[in-house]
Structure formats: C-alpha cells, structure tokens
Amino acid sequence: MFPTFTGNSRRARNVNLSGQRTTNPFTSTWAPATNVGASKTVAHAQAERQQRQHERDRLKAAQRIQKTWRGHRVRQGLKAARRQKLDQLYNTLDPELRIAQALPLLLAVYDAARPDDRPRLLWVAEDLLKSEFDVFISQQIHCTRLNKLARILITTLERQGASNNDHSPWLPLPQAQLLLDSLGAIMKIRPQAIEPVIGRYYRVLGRACHDIGPASQSPELVRGVVAPLLATQVPESFTKAAYHAFAHSFLTLHDLAFFESNVAAFATGVDQDRLYSSLLAAPPAEPKTYESQADFLWLLAHLIALQDAKKQEVSSPLYLKALYLLLSMSSTYIRTAFRMPDPKGSSEARDVEGGLQQTLPLYVSDKLPSLIGKDEISTLLEMFTMNHGAKSASEYDDASFLAGYILTLVYCFPTSGDDIRMRLYLADMSTQYGPLPALKFFWNATSRTSIFSTIASNGESTLDVLRQRPSGAGSSTAKEDSLWHREWRTILLFLELYVFILRLTDDDDFFSGLNPQSAVQGSPSRLRSSSLSMEELKRLTRFLKHLSFTLYYSATELLETAARTPLTLSSPVEFLASPSRRMDSADVDVASKTASFSITAGIEFEAFRTLVTAAMKMVYERDSRRPFLPKGHWLMTSNLDMGGFVEGVVNEDQRQREARESREEEDEDSDEDMDPNEPNYTFAGQTRNRHAQVEKWKAVRRKEARERMLASIGPRLEILRNMPFVVPFEVRVQIFRQFVRLDKERRRGGFVDPDRWRLWVMNQHNGNPFSQNMQSVNVLARHQAKITRGHIFTDALTKFWDLDDGLKEPIQIQFVDEFGMEEAGIDGGGVTKEFLTSVTKEAFTNDERLFVTNSQNSYYPNPCAIDQQAESLRAAQITENSETWNESMADLLRQYEFLGRIIGKCMYEGILIDIVFAGFFLLKWASARADNYRPSINDLHDLDEELYQGMLQLKNYPGDIKDLDLDFTINDQVSLPGAPVRTVTRNLVPNGDRIPVTNENRPLYISYVARHRLVVQSRAQTRAFLRGLGMIIDPTWLSMFNQSELQRLVGGDNSEIDVEDLRRHTVYGGVYVIGDDGEEHPTVKLFWDVLHSLDDAERRLVLKYVTSTPRAPLLGFSQLSPAFSIRDGGQEVDRLPSASTCMNLLKLPQYRTAESLREKLLYAVKSGAGFDLS
C-alpha cells in the first residue's frame, strides 16, 4: 500500500504557486535541487492549505473588527447625542419636568470611567432628592430602573474612593455625600435594588466610616448602614443577604473609626441574633492570606463591640457560637499576640512573637481581652446553666459547645489561662440530679463519650480512633462540628480543668475522694467534692496512658496524614509575609513540613499531646510518691517487644545521633547567613525587617521539623523520654547503663578501661605510647590533680572546672594531707571513688551555703543563696553589678554547676553516694530535658513542712480570707545565717501587692506561693546545678526515671540487702582466695554466716563501712564498682576489721569463732573506727 494513501480516491488538486510553468500537471510545482519523495509533497500541500485557511481567517477577523467599530461608532454617536440632549435639558427645562426625561438618558449613557459624566449624575441625584424620588413613586419610571441607578451610584463611589490617595479623604466632599444620600433614598423606596450589589454597598459605607473620622456627626451614614438590616416588607432572602454583607463586607474592614466611636448608635439597628445566625450559616472561608487573617481579627473585634453596646441584654448562645467559630479560626495568631515571649525559648522564636505582637492593631488588642474578664466568664457559665442545665437529654451534649469555647479562650489567652480555669472550677453546673462541681460535670460528660470508652477499654484501638478524624478536621467551620469534634472538645476541657485542680489539691483532699466512706463529716470542700473515686481514676489513667502511648509511638503516622491535607494559614509565616505577596514555593515547602495533626479547631497536635501527657504525669507523680494504684498498673509491656527492646532503643539512639550530626553542618551554614545582631522586629521597621522575620521563622520551623524527624526514627526513645513508667524499672536501668557504656566508647576511642584509654591518648598524639609527647602529656595532665584534705571541694573546682564534659574521662587523684605530705597509693579507681564521695560529703554536709536539708534530712539547693550572697556583698560595700559583684555571683553559680558535674560523674562511673535528695528537687532532674517541672502544694511538704501546714490551714480556713489581710506577695529572707532576720517583699504576680487574697482566689494564691518557693526563688541555683549534671549525664537519660527511681540510681537500692547476691559477686584476696577445691576459707564462711544472722539495719552498717553507702547497687552487686572484696587482715584475732572504702575492701582478721567475728565486726561498724585508706 502506498505510504501516502489517505482513504480518499479523489485525486488531490495540484496548485502551482511557484511561478514556474510545467507541462505535466501531476508533477511537483516546486523543483528542489534534489529528488522529492511523496511524503515531502504531502507536507508541502498541508502547509499550503494552512496558509490559505490563515488568509481566510484574517479576512473574517478584519470584517468583524470593522463591524464592531461601526457599531461602537454608532453607539458612541448615539450616546453623545443623548448626553447633548441631557445637557440641554439642564440648561433650559424646569427642574420639576426635566427629571422624568433626564433619568432614562443618564441610565443609558452613564460611564463611571468618564469624568465628564459625573456632573450629570450629580445633577440627576440632586433633582431626585429634591423631588423625593417622585418619578418612581408616581410610577412615571418603573421602580426596577432603581437597580441600575443603585449600581451606578455605588460604582461611582468606588471609583472616586480608589482615585484619591490615602492622604486625601474623599467622602467629606458635598458631591460624595449627595451620592450617599441618594443611595439612602433608594433603600427606602426599593431595598431590593441594593441586593445585587449589597456587598459593594457596605464596602462603600465602610470606606466612609474610615475616612470621616471618629469625631464627625453623620446620622445619615448610620441610617445608611442599618437601613438594609431594618428593611420591612422585603423577602427573607434580602434580609439574609443584608446581614451577610454587613458581617463579611463591612465589619471585616479595618479602622472603621466612625463606626467604632459610635457603635452604640449602630447597635440599635442591628438584630444581633440575625447577625450571628448569618455568620454561622455562611461562615467566612478559613484565612489563607495576610489580608484575610487581618479581616478575621477586625470582624471579631467589631462583633465584641456591638455586643458590649448592648450590655443590658444577656449574651445569646448564637453570639458565643459565632465567637467560638472566629476564635478557633484565628487562635494561633491571637495566642501569639497575647503570649509573653518565652524566656526559655530561642531568640528567633521570641523575635517572631514580638513581630506578631507589634502587628496586632490597637483596637483589636483592646477588644479581645474583654472576652476573658471575670464578669464575662461568670455570665457565660450562668447562661449555660440557665439555658441547658435543666435539659436532661442534652445537658452533656451541650457541654461540648461550652468546652470548645472555653478551650479556645484558654488557648488564645495563655497568660490568663489560670483565671479562666479558676472561674470554671468555682462554677456549679445544673443537672437533672442537682448542681454538680464543674469538674464532676465534665467528667460525667467525658466518661459518656464513645471515644473515651473505646480508648480506655482497648489501647490497641486508639490509633484507629484517631484515624477516624473527619476530613478537614483542622478546619473550624460549623459544618464540621461532628460528633468526633464534640466529644474531643469535652474530653480536652475536662483534662485542662483536671490538671489545674491537681495543682491545687493536696494529698488529703486527693485521697479523700478515693475512699468516700473515709471522708470527713460535714460539708466537703470544693476540692474534695471534685475528687475522683478509685475506679474513676483507674479508668482515667488507662485512657491517658493508651492515648499518650499512641501519640508518641505513632506520631509520625498521624503527622504524615496531616501533611497530606491542603496547607492552611496555620502558622505565622504568611502573617509576617508582605501583604502584597503569597508564600513562595520555599515558604510552602517549609510550612508543609510543619503541618500538624489538629485534634479539633484551634487545638494543634503538640498542644493536644502536651495536655494529655501533663494530666497523665501529674497522676503518675502522685502515685509514685504515695502509691494508690495496683502494682504494674502503668506498665504497657504487651505493646512493646520487650525481648529486643533494649537493643532496639540503643539502635534508635545511634540512628538519632548520626542524623543529628549529619545536620549540624547544614544548621551552621544556615545560621551563618543570619545576622544574630540584627535589630528585632519593630512597628516602625515593619516593612524593612519583614523578610528577616520570615527567615527566622523558617529557621525555627526547620529545627522543629528536625526534632520531628528524629522522633520518627526513635519511637521507643520517645516513649522512654515522655512516659518511661510504661517500661519496667530494671529494663530502664539496663538502658541507662548501655547509654553510658556507649558514650564511654565513643569518647574514649573504644577503650573503656582507664589505663588502656591513657595508652590510646599517648598513641593518638605520637604513635609511640611510651614516648613523652608533650601534647599527650598535657591531655592527661588536665585529668590529674593533687587534692588537699580539708579543701577537697575548692581544690577540685580549681583543678577540674575547665574540663567541662571532659570530666567524663578517667581522672587520677593524689591526696595531700594537712601537712602537705603526699599520701601513699596509686589511683587504680579506688582513690577516684574516695575523691568523688569526699567532694559530695564536703559540699553537702559541711557547707550549708550551697545545699540545705528539710525535716527528712533530704538535700536541695539553698533557695536563699543568691539573696544571701548579695547581702554579704552589700555588707562589704561592693557596688551592685560591678565587676567584683558579678564575678562573685558567677562564682557561686559555678560551684552549683561543678557540684552537678560531680554528681553526674558519680552516676556515670556507677559510684553510689550516701546522699538523699528532696523529692521535688529530683523531679526537676527528670524534667530537665523539657524544663517542664510543675510545682504543686504537695511538693512544699518536701521543702518546708511549716509552710506546707500553713498553706493547708489557709486552704481550709472557714472564715472570710479578707480578714487576714493577705495579698499576692511573699517575703523572702535575705539575711545571712545567724544574723538578724531581714526579708524583702516580692510580688507573686504582676501588681500582686494590689490584689487581695479572697475565698475565691486563695487556691491560686497557694499555687503561686508553691511556684515561688519551689521554682522562682531557687531558679538560678537549680539551673546551674542541672546544667552541670546535664554536661555529664544526658538529660534525656534522666527523663527515664521518676524521683524515687533517680534516688535509687544515685544512692543505690533501698530494698533489703541480698546476702547471697553479695556473696556471689565478692572477690577474695590473700589467704582467702578460693583454691582449686572451690571451698571458701573457714573465716570467710563464718563471715557469711554472721552476715546472714544480722538484721537488715546491721547489714547496711556493714555495707556502708566497706563501700561508704548503705544501699545495694541497682541490678544487684554485680554492678558495684570496684567489686566488694575481702582480704585477710592477719592472724591477730584481737584486732578489729578494717576497710578501704575507696576499693570497697574489707580487711578481715582470721577469726576462729562466729561469736568473736560478730562482736568485732559490729563494734567496728558502729563505732566508725578502723578505716584504712592504704
């Protein structure tokens, strides 16, 4: 078949356009230099056809242009004739007669873009106003023509407003007022004429309110705004459209100065319920640009102003629902604007927050806080009780709405969160069974939800429940108010309130609820009436641990699901971006990586997880301090592969470390591009610094994204760091030891043994470990020191301060006695142990400046140390903030930091110390990673028993607290020990000296006293100590343990001494070495028999005599370093046993009878004699 066959049998026409003659009509009309194939011929034919078609199209286009132009010329001529006729009418005809002829001409020819048409419009408008629109009333002109007149008037006002610059207000001109008056007259005659352009109508009036200023008097403008809202005899659709436009096109405008100063006049013409219904029926689209977010805030502020103008009226539920809708959609920005920059946060984050605070308009920032006033919250709760409390069928369903609104307030206004929670805590909710405390009301509502029941009963279903989140759950529109959201809002508010109440509840009130039969007679306190029973607590804790486990273990899956949803304006990046631009691709990339799983409107993933974890930890801390739940209640070993758990955790830690190190260079490169000295965001420099703020935001978000990435490769680590109690304690200790061992291997080139490490150091710097290379000698010399007895702590601080985390490496100590003589002995590890225990003993027991003890003889940092140091400097007449002053203060904090390093070194080397720390202080160790220690009144018991009892008396005081004349201040002692007592008064809250303590706010007062004593007063000392401790022991390792477990980690196990375990791991020396027959020496057998016969207290005395601590190591005596040793002490049976505590060595004479051995041994350990440091 021919390749050019097309299926058409008709021969194609051959057209010659080349100008050449040919005798054969079937040959090519174009003669190329070479032979032309058939396909080439076809191609040329197609090109020729296209050329002809193009010519035809050009001809048709030219005809259309000519036709259009002729029509345009005719129309323009006709319009010109009509304009001329209109002008003649206004030159000759009587005003009363000309309007009927002039108006149709104007409607036919008017063009808002032509400046010469505007006078004609003004002529007609003036005539219409003078005649009171009689031509329409008398039906000379049909009323439908008012529709077009209204459009013309609005278009003209829009163009006139846009044509003037921002410094030249347009509305005060008489012509503009004339047009506005005409619109007002149209509204009276035919409101429907405005309906097609109602949004534009309100925008025009909004521009007028902006430009005429707050001091102007313009009742006509007020009437123009409210006229569509008050229109009668109009379809319902018109009224709905009017309210919709009023809300979306007028109230969203910025700086409506005239409206804001005369809001009461406007409010009289606004049906509030219709306005709120309009917002709820057609809510605004979720903001995705700077302009839309700003519009949201202005709409919210104007709604609040309208409601405030009707204070005599009770707020309707529709108002609260509308507020909840708008607040939830703007929660991120309101929260940032009303949050004080976190002093613990990064400077970049503080700069971003500062920029947002500066951009919040003054009017908006003045109106929003009115939502959290005392009266406003109280009115809200009263209204809820009145409207919903008596409805037994819906009382708990309605609780979800109240929960959502209060949750959003707490989230939006974090600095006022405690005040909001306090108002809710004091409220009673009416139910069909009578009033209930708010906590019990929301507990009942929570426990009835299907989500709570499912998660509490079956932990494996938690992830499935979270996956059921409705599509677009991050949106805040009313159509997404599903059962899922309603139930979660109820649960979250209960948790918010419960966490707050746990802070205020002492153990007596808490435990009284566990056993209602043991409650005191009479009317219980509100705290006791808010307590949960044992069964309720079991159910709640199961829910919390199942949910928390999933939120940490499956966080990556949940966040990846959220990252696939469309990006909304859920972060400050675009709010800081220039209003004239959208986010570029880089911005979108960064923002998409930080997408969050929003549990419900306004509550992001991290805030949700933090709240759930906080509630769980607060109950767990109380249980760990005073157990009340069944043993093993918190464990979740069935959810973890415990067989390979330790290995899996170690591998995850390795992968995280590698990922972190691989990104350090990238972070350094990005940080080099940012000037740390760049001025902060200021209002005056808003445009100049905006790009820098966006870049800083990106840097902060990149760090957050990196943390999420690290968490995604370490789910087991996330569990250990945030809810370690679900893993058995013994497993966590194994993991801790593994972390320490791997850290030693990394730092010491794989050589954990001190002597092999020293050889490796010598070899690293020279290649020959036996040559005296100066560099290697200097490295080792920094880890060696001569320490004078009696000055152990000060010498250690001087010698080893510069090592920083180098203190992790092996050190060598040479003791010098009080006469300057070096003590005999080689430090093979035992002298180092004695050095470390001696440093702690001297610092804790001999120097009360740094640490003090409570009534249980437990140690914690001296909270008055800073004030006392300042007092002593003032007594020495040293100027405050002088170089000497600052150096002295820094030296005090260095001592705390160095002591933290020493404690860390003991834990790092597995050396137990006989020091007991206060429980609240150990809680700060466990919270050091996130710095999220939450003080409570119960922790005061460990700090100051007298203060604790005083707070309890105040809490239970039956009379009026005002009679005690207390305020929100506290007195801190600043005088030195032994000197006359001198105190200073400090505020517990801003302006605390002006806030009296009342019966209502006394729980807050007690909470703030606890916070001051436990956190604020000793913040500098504690941070210095924890900084030193964290330099040796990674804070994430410490977060795996609670306060009692940390004490066991530092000082050993407090359980009964296991003699057989000690016997199995004892090393013998001298004649006591076990021979080939495997038999122990007779004296050794007698020793173990005697030890078995002793009670546990006496065994502890023996253990302390030999090892310097009365407690066994965790995981048994196999972990004791150096190992427990027994060596013969000669054949003189009259001698007492002696010990070398630095080597954990007991020198035992060869006693022949058990009675003699028992007598000598107990005498030695109880008298404290016989220590031998050789």
Automatic annotation (TrEMBL):
GO biological process annotation, one example: ubiquitin-dependent protein catabolic process
Pathway the protein takes part in: Protein modification; protein ubiquitination
Domain (HECT) ranges: 803-1174
Top EC class for this record: transferase
Compositionally biased residues, Basic and acidic residues: 652-663
Catalytic reaction list: S-ubiquitinyl-[E2 ubiquitin-conjugating enzyme]-L-cysteine + [acceptor protein]-L-lysine = [E2 ubiquitin-conjugating enzyme]-L-cysteine + N(6)-ubiquitinyl-[acceptor protein]-L-lysine
Active site: 1142
Gene Ontology molecular function: any one: ubiquitin protein ligase activity
Keywords: Transferase, Ubl conjugation pathway
Annotated segments matching region Disordered: 1-28, 651-690
Source species, domain of life: Eukaryota
Residue ranges with Acidic residues bias: 664-676
EC number: 2.3.2.26
SUPFAM superfamilies: Hect, E3 ligase catalytic domain (SSF56204)
Protein name: HECT-type E3 ubiquitin transferase
Lineage: Eukaryota, Fungi, Dikarya, Ascomycota, Pezizomycotina
